[in-house]
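Design review, sub-item: ligand-bound model
Attendees: FS, YL, KQ
YL presented the inputs for the uracil complex:
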Amino acid sequence: MFMRIVDIIEKKRDGKELSTQEIDFFINGFCSGQIFEYQAAALIMAIFIRGLNSRETADLTAAMTRSGDCIDLSEIPGIKVDKHSTGGVGDKTTLVVAPIAAACGVPVAKMSGRGLGHTGGTIDKLESIKGFRTSLSKEEFINNVKEIGIAISGQTGNLAPADKKLYALRDVTATVSSIPLIASSVMSKKLASGADRIVLDVKTGSGAFMKTLDESVDLAREMISIGEQMGKKTVALITDMDTPLGNCIGNTLEVREAIDVLRGRGPKDLTAVCLELAARMLELGGKGSIEDCRLMAENSIKNGSALKKLGELAAKQGAVYDPWDERAMKQAPIRYPVAARCDGYISSMKSDLVGKASMLLGAGRTTKDSPIDHGAGIVLFKKTSDYIKKGDILAELHTSSHDLIEQAEELLLEAYEITEKPPEPRPLILAYADSNTVIKY
Ligand code: URA
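KQ shared the predicted structure:
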């Protein structure tokens, strides 16, 4: 059938449903270069505004998955479990959860992304470890999982190339926070990278792309339905991103904090979320009841096996030193303390502004290809619920340039909401969802 992209854009602009063939035509044409970026940008904006129904979202995911290779992990024994976060500020959970799962005997073959919008990405974090290679061939990826039970690779080669192109375009066209676009982006990568079962960490709140619990549950259900339609058991935790997770934001800083968690001395909030995600991975990996799996995850920290696994992963992927060695990572030369300007309780935080302040200091990209300063970022000393007095040090900025400090400091101070009364406590894990149920805590 004869098709033109302009008609497809017009159809979605007017709120009509796209057919499977029209969605395939868009993805194939965009990947082959026959559909231009400005046309793709117009269509994704129309999708952002008008939405996609579940059938269209599933078709978009399938077309994006088929745009490249799909890895066959069947030669690796055991149930392969993948994990993916929808993105947040200070979200370094993969650096903790993947080694725990692997240390407990669940093979982890993980494809991760770079920073998107104000959120960081696992690949940028791992690249702050000197020598760490995130670009693995398909063979190396599979062999590493076979040999040491874990591999983490960037979106290299030909895996979901449609997502790679759309992800970069969405980042610069204000079209990230859309349920069908996030669901298809996440699930196309998960389906292409071949794991048998999937744990999703859907972030919710000011630092996430989904701001409310209801939206986050809708996103989780959409992704679960896509996973299950493809025969992959998929579960989701909806976790808090109203406050940055842990105390560190920025690549080197976050790797260090993840190591603290694996040593049993990490921040409580980060440790709790990591243990629950790891337990869900172990449960899907067939390691027993959720209670047994929680104990197993905790033990892997207590007995040092999860930290050892992170060291093995780093060595296997080219790291020059153990990641906990002082020489392993670049640090920022400038540390600048940010002081509170009034007394009161921190009642809430605009976590997206904390992410933006960290990016401004050098931790994120200003354009798609710009380099990042791995040492840059922010260490928070005070977070939501803490009482502060004027002059207390709220945070420390890490950067390589004095010129970046003033603007980042203002942005960070704007992120803190100070009131006379303390805020209501908010749970860290707000909901659990699978194909049968949604439990809100
Ligand atoms: N993570 C992804 O992989 N894609 C998105 O669109 C958002 C978060």
